[in-house]
C-alpha cells in the first residue's frame, strides 16, 4: 500500500470506536453532574497563543508544535493542549462579564511532535476541564475529585494521586534562584540534558529519571518548603478539602508539569502499569495565564486526561467497558421476490427502533445465518417463497434455535414483545 497514516497517528476503527463513544458519553454525564459545560474551540490557533515567551522554556512549545504558515502568511499552530485556547476564548468572548466561576470542559484531538511510543502519539485525544475565575481551594479539590470520579466510572479505583504546589509569581522566582544555585554547585553529577536545563528550565531537572541525577535531585531544595504564606495557606486548604472528600494523595515536591503556566496546585494521576508514559491525567492552577493572554487578572484551574492512556490502563487491568457491537435482528432473504418484501420490512423495523440488518451480497442461507451470528443478532427473520405465499415469516431465536412462524402483519408487535422479554 502506497499510503499510510502519518507517524504517531491512529485510525480508530469499529468496534474500538464503541469504547470511545462510551467514554465520551460518560464524560458528558459526569462533567455535567458537576455543572461543567462543553466548549469547542478551533483545532488551530495563532502560534503566539502558545508561544507567549514568558515563563520557563518547555519542550512542548519549543520543540513539539505543529506550526505552519497559511496562505495569508499567518503563523498557525495545531493546538498542543486545550487550556490556552479556553482562556483565549473566555477573554475574547468576554465571559468574565457573566456570573462566575465559569466551568468548561472539552473533548478532542491535540497535536505534539513527540517521539511516538506506547501511550505517546503525535495526534492524541484529551478530555479536559477548566474552572475559571475563582481561587477557592475547594475548587481545586472539586477538579481533582471530578477526575477521580470519572476514572471510577470506568472501574479504575486504585490509582495514585500526586500533589504539589509550585508557588506563585511572588515565591517561585526565589525558589528557582535557590534551585539554580544548588544545581550549579552539583553540576558535575548531572546528566548532559540536566546540565543544559539548569539555566533554561531548572524545574524540569526535578523530573529527570537518570539514576545519578536522582541523588542530586533528592537533596535539592523543595518548593513546598519555600512557598510564601499565601501559597502555603492555599496548599494546606486544598489538602483539607481533599481530606473532607476522603481522597488519598501523595505530596510530591518533585512534581513539575510540562507546561509553563502553572501556579500553586499541581497534580497528576499515574498508573504504574503503563511504563514510561504513565500519567493518565494531570493539571493544576494557572492564576497568571489570563494575564499573559489578555491582560486580565483571572485565576483558573483544570486538568486534561489522555483518552489513549485511559484505554491502555483499562487494558492493562483487563477491564472491559460495557459496550456491545451487533444488531437485534437479522433478516435472512431467500429469492428475489422475498428481497423486496424484506427490504420494506427492514425499513419498518428500523424505524420502530430495532437495530436490523439484512444481506446485500446475495449469499446463501447458511452464510446469511453466519453473518447473523457474527453480528450477535438475537433473532433472525427468515423470508422465502414459502413464507411469502402465506404472508408470513419464520422467526428463529439464535440462542435457543427455536423457530416460529408469524404473520407479516403481526410481525412488528411480536418482535417488540419478544425483544422486550429478552431484555428483562
Ligand atoms: P499535559 O500533562 O501536557 O497537560 O497533558 C495531559 C494528559 O494528556 C497527559 O497526562 C496524558 O495523559 C495526555 N498526553 C499528553 N501528551 C500525550 C501524547 N503525546 N500522547 C498521548 N497522550 C498524551 C495539559 O495538556 C494541560 N492542558 C492540562 C491542564 C488543563 N492543566 C490545566 N488545565
TrEMBL record:
Gene3D superfamilies, A to Z: Anticodon-binding domain, Bira Bifunctional Protein, Domain 2
Molecular function per GO: ATP binding; catalytic activity, acting on a protein; histidine-tRNA ligase activity; transferase activity
Top-level class of the enzyme under EC nomenclature: ligase
SUPFAM superfamilies: Class II aaRS ABD-related (SSF52954), Class II aaRS and biotin synthetases (SSF55681)
Biological process terms in GO annotation: histidyl-tRNA aminoacylation
Documented EC number(s): 6.1.1.21
Residues covered by the Aminoacyl-transfer RNA synthetases class-II family profile domain: 1-322
Binding site for L-histidine: 81-83, 112, 126, 130, 257, 261-262
Assigned keywords, A-Z: Aminoacyl-tRNA synthetase, ATP-binding, Cytoplasm, Ligase, Nucleotide-binding, Protein biosynthesis
Catalysed conversion reaction: tRNA(His) + L-histidine + ATP = L-histidyl-tRNA(His) + AMP + diphosphate + H(+)
GO cellular component: cytoplasm
Subcellular location: Cytoplasm
Record-linked InterPro entries: aa-tRNA-synth_II, aa-tRNA-synth_II/BPL/LPL, Anticodon-bd, Anticodon-bd_dom_sf, His-tRNA-ligase, HisRS-like_core, HisRS/HisZ, HisRS_anticodon
PANTHER family per the UniProt record, alphabetical: HISTIDINE--TRNA LIGASE, MITOCHONDRIAL-RELATED, HISTIDYL-TRNA SYNTHETASE
Family statement drawn from the similarity comment of this UniProt entry: Belongs to the class-II aminoacyl-tRNA synthetase family.
Quaternary structure and partners: Homodimer.
Protein name: Histidine--tRNA ligase
Protein species of origin: Halanaerobium praevalens (strain ATCC 33744 / DSM 2228 / GSL)
The encoding gene: hisS
